[in-house]
Design a protein that fits this description.
The structure is a single chain. The protein is of the alpha+beta class. The protein has one domain: Alpha-Beta Plaits. Helices cover 37% and strands 33% of the residues. The protein has three helices and four strands, in the order βαββααβ. Strands 2-3-1-4 form a four-stranded antiparallel sheet. The longest helix is centred in the N-terminal third of the chain and has 21 residues, at 13-33. The chain is globular, with a radius of gyration of 13 Å.
Length: 91
């Protein structure tokens, strides 16, 4: 199943992001290597970031979110996690 993660930037995101970027990417690395992260990156309007993850269970994705340095370090003020159904392009 696919899940969409939307991390909304905190007021301090611009200040904190550079100090936490390396640990954030290292945290996501194993998920990328396992093929679980389909797409990820910042929203170019400065609102936050988006990640699309493939996982067997929501708990797996929630654990990934909970351990992310952008979450624990305050880059994200809030995080939304939603199940997602891909329509286009056809899976």
């Amino acid at each position: 199943m696919l899940y969409v993660i939307i991390g909304r930037d905190s007021p301090r995101a611009q200040e904190l992001r550079p100090t936490l970027r390396e640990s954030h990417l290292a945290h996501l690395g194993p998920f990328v290597e396992a093929g679980k992260i389909r797409i990820a990156g910042p929203l170019t309007d400065g609102a936050g970031s988006l990640i699309v993850v493939e996982a067997d269970a929501r708990d797996e994705v929630q654990a990934m979110v909970d351990g992310d340095p952008y979450v624990t370090g305050g880059v994200f003020e809030s995080v939304e996690l939603h199940p997602f159904k891909q329509v286009f392009p056809a899976p």
